[in-house]
Amino acid sequence: MAKQPETVSDNRGDRILAFMIAATVLLSIASFLAIIIGTGLGAGTDNGFSQGIWPTIFVLPLIGLPIGLILIIVLLVRTAVRRSRAAKGAGK
Description:
Elements: H1 12-40, H2 54-91
């Protein structure tokens, strides 16, 4: 019988990192949508966007999207390193 190839399973750290990426990007997209909807409803008239929670909503995508990109790169590097180590271990 042929030996079954071992699958590379994702570990807890990669899953946590993937959920962090999803949460960061989705929160930034939700902020974009809130800005678009708020502008359409007239919340920005008479300097309305400088009050309440609006300044935070405006800054959130500026911080969240670069963090999401960095986390994606970290996840890709972690996955590549893990698969490389698995391939080296299988070749012995």
